[in-house]
Amino acid sequence: MKKFILVLSTLLSLSALAQPKLQSPAEFLGYELGDRFTRHHRVVEYFKHIDDAAANVQVQQYGETYENRPLIYAIVASPDNFKNIEQIRLDNLKRTGLMAGAPSTKVAIVWLSYNVHGNEANSMEAAMKTIYELVNPDNAKTKEWLKNTVIIMDPCINPDGRDRYANFFNQYGNLPANADPQAREHAEPWPRGRANHYLFDLNRDWAWQTQIESQARIKIYNQWMPHVHVDYHEQGYNSPYYFAPAAEPYHEVISNWQREFQNTIGKNNAKYFDEQGWLYFTKERFDLYYPSYGDSYPTYSGAIGMTYEKGGIGAGIVITTKEGDPLTLKDRLTHHFTTGMATIETSSQNASKLVDEFEKFFKENVNSPAAPFKTYAIKAENNPDKLKKLTNWLTSHSIQFGHAAASKPSRGFDFQTQSTNNFTLTTEDIVVNIYQPKGRFVTTIFEPVTKLTDSLTYDITAWNLMYAYDLKAFALTEKVSFAKGYEPKVVAQDVVATKTYAYLFNYQSLNDVELLTSLMKKGVKVRKAMKAFFTAGKNFEPGTLIVTRRNNEGITDFDNVVQNAAKSLGRKIYTTSTGYSDKGADFGSSEMSYIKAPKVALLGGDQTSSLDHGQVWHFFEQQLHYPLTIIGTDYFHTIDLWKYDVLIIPDGNYKLLDEGTLAMIERWTSDGGRLIAIAGANSSFADKKGFGLKVFANDDAKNKADKEAKEQKEKEGPVKYGDAERKELSNSIFGAIYKVSLDKSHPLAFGLGDYYYSLRTSELHYAYLERGWNVGMLKGKQKPLIGFAGAKINKQLENTLVFGVEDKGKGQAVYLVDNPLFRSFWESGKMLFSNAVFMVGE
C-alpha cells in the first residue's frame, strides 16, 4: 500500500512539473504591466508559459522576422473546442468554399492582432493581460465566451520595430518616468520603431506581402479565415480612443451585415468606456477602402475587420496631455484590454449569427457576385516573369484562376487603352472570375473603375495590379469559367554552342535585372544594346544584355559561369557566333555600351523619409541582391562622395542640402557621378544653381482655376470654417494612377511598355527639362485613370515632367518625380528604377 501511495505521489508530482501553475503577467515578469516596456522575447516566453500552464491553449511559431525574432500566435478555446480545434478550422474553410464539404461544427473565430507598428507600443502589453484573463480559471465570463468562440492572438506582428522602440525607451527613459512632452524619452530618433527591419509599414502590406512578416502571417490567416479581426494601434497621445464603426469611404463590396455588426461591436465597446468615463470617438478618420490594411484585408475576406486606436504614440510610460492630464502606459493597455474583452463578448453573444452571415458572404461571392465586372482575362503574351509573379501572388491569397475551355471572341474593358474593345480570349490566357470565395477581394484589386463615396480618405485611392504590372488584360461583364488549372509556360533552352562569340539576354523584367547584377557580382562584363538589332535569326530590343567572350577572358570557366547564372534565374539563353548584326549595330559599336558595375550609395537618417529609404534598401538587398552603402545624413558632408558612382536620395525634407552641399553634388555629378532624386527629394534641386529642374507654373491653368474659384465664391459666399478641409481637396492627390507618355529610346525606359502607369502620391509638378531628356511626361489634359485627384491639381499637372535625365559633364542627374518603388508592389516601377541605377549613362 505504501508503495502504491509513493508511486501515485510521484506521478502527481511529475504531473505538476509537466503543467506549471498559471502565473499572471506580473508574477511571471516580476513587475506590473505598465511599469515598463517588456521586450519581445519575454512576451514570447510568457505566451509559452501560458501554453504550458493551460490545457486549452496552443502557441505556435508561424514565421521569423528579418532580425530573426520569432512570430507566434496563440489559439485559445474551451477544453471541448480545443479537443476539436482542427475540425473547427477545417469546417470554417468549408464555409468559405476554400475547402469542399459540409461543416459539422459552428464556432465563432475572433483574431486579435497587436503591435503592427512597433512604437504604438502598449498593445503587446495588453496582449499579455488579455490572454491571462482568457485562461484565468476564476474568470467566469471568459469561460462562458469560449464555449462558442475560439480566440486567436498574435501578440506582436512587428517584433523588430517593437524592440527598436522598447530599447530606445528603456535606454533613455528617466527614472521615474518624465511626463514632460519635451523630455528626451518622448523624442524617438530616426527611423523610429513604427516600421519593420527594412522600414516598411506592415499595416500597408497585408495585400502586397512584400515583407516576410506579411507573407508568413497571410499564409496562416488564410488557413483560419476568422469571423472577426481586430488590428490594435495607437494614435497621437492627445487623441482619446477610436473604435468601430469605421469612417467613410467603405468600399461598395462590403456587406450590409459587416457594416451593421461594426455598430454592434462599437456600442458594446462604448458601454464599457461609458462606465469608466473614458473618452472615445467612432466613424471618423479611419476608413475601409485601401485593401492592404489590417482591417480592410480581413473585411474583403469576409471578416468584421476593425482598427482600434488608443492615443499614445510618443507617450512612453507617462506623458502630460494637452488637457494637463497624465496618460500612463497602464491606462493605454487597460483600454486595449477592455475593447478586446468587449469584442470577444459581443462576438460570443452573436456567435451563431456571426457564423451564418460569414457563410452567406461567401455563398454570395460564389453564386451571385454583385460587381459589374465578372471576369478578368490576362493575355498569355504578357511577359512570363510578370505572369509568374502575379499568379504566385494570386495563389498566396487563395484566389482561383485558370484557363478557359475554348477560345472565343470576347469584348471587355481594355486596360491598355482604357476603352471597351473586342478581343479573342484564348485557351492560354489566364482567367480570373469573381464567382469564387475571394471574389470581392478580386474586385477590389482589379476593378477598372472604383466608386469612392467620400474623397477625404486616409490613404491612397488606387492600386490596380493590371497597371502596377503593366499587363495586357481585359475586364468582362460576363462570367467566363476556367476548365483547367493554370499551366505556366516553361522556358525552353536551346542547345548552347560549345564556344559562342557572345551570349544575349532579353531585358524586359526584374528577373533580367537580377541576372545583370548576378553577373556583375561575378566580375562578368556586360554590355547593353542602345538600339534594336537583328542577329542569329532574332530581333532584339533596346536594353538587351550582351556578354561577349572578349573582355571576359579573365573569368575562369566563363561559359559555365554565364550559363549557370542564367539557368538559376530561369533566363532564356541566346547565343551568336559572330559580332556582325544583320540589322543594327555590330557588337563592337559604341551603340553596344559597356555597363560598369556601379558602387551605389543611399542617403539615410534624419530628414529622410524612413519608409522611402527602406524601400530602396529592401530593393537592393532582397530583390536585386546587389551591394549598397548607406550613408547617414548626420555625416554626409564629411564623406568622399567620389568613391561612389551612384547616389540615391529618397523622399525627404533636406535642410542638409544647402548651397555648399549642392555645389559638391554638382561637381561630383559633372565628374561622372549619377544622382537619383526620388519624389520629394527633387524639391531640394529644383530652381537651384547647377541643376536644370524647374518648378512648373502653369499660369493659364492657375488663372482659370482662380477665376472659377472667384465665381464660385461670389455664387456661394465665403468658405465656411467647417468646409475648409474639403475645399482643399481640389488641390490634392490621394494616390491616383496616371498614364505617362514615354520616350522609349532613352535607357531610362528600357524594358517598359508604350506607356508607364504611374502611382502618383503627391502634388509635385515640374517643367519639362530645357537641357535634358524628358523620358516620362504628362502631356495635355490630365485626369487619373483610377483614384482621386482634385480638379485644380489636374490642371497644374498638364504638360509636366514625371521622369527626366539631365546630362551634366560626364555624369547625370535623374529626376524621379513619382516614387517608382512605392511600398514595393509597383512592379513596372522597379524596372524603371533599375534603369536609373544601371542603364542610364555609361
The number of distinct helices, counting runs of at least 4 residues, comes to 24
**What is the general shape?**
globular
Rounded radius of gyration (Å):
29 Å
Strand order of the largest sheet: 27-26-28-29-34-33-32-30-31
First-to-last CA distance:
93 Å
Residue stretches low in confidence (pLDDT < 50, at least 5 long) are 1-16
Fraction of residues in helices?
25-40%
- Count the beta strands: 34
Mean pLDDT: 94
Which structural category do the helix and sheet elements fall into?
alpha+beta
Largest sheet: 9 strands, mixed
Percent of residues in β-strands: 15-25%
Can you offer a commentary on this structure?
It contains 24 helices and 34 strands. By secondary structure, it is of the alpha+beta class. It has a nine-stranded mixed beta sheet with strand order 27-26-28-29-34-33-32-30-31, sandwiched between helices. Strands 1-2-4-3-5-9-6 form a seven-stranded mixed beta sheet. A hairpin with a 4-residue loop joins strand 14 and strand 15. The longest helix is centred in the first third of the chain and has 21 residues, at 256-276. The radius of gyration is 29 Å and the shape is globular. The relative contact order is 0.08.
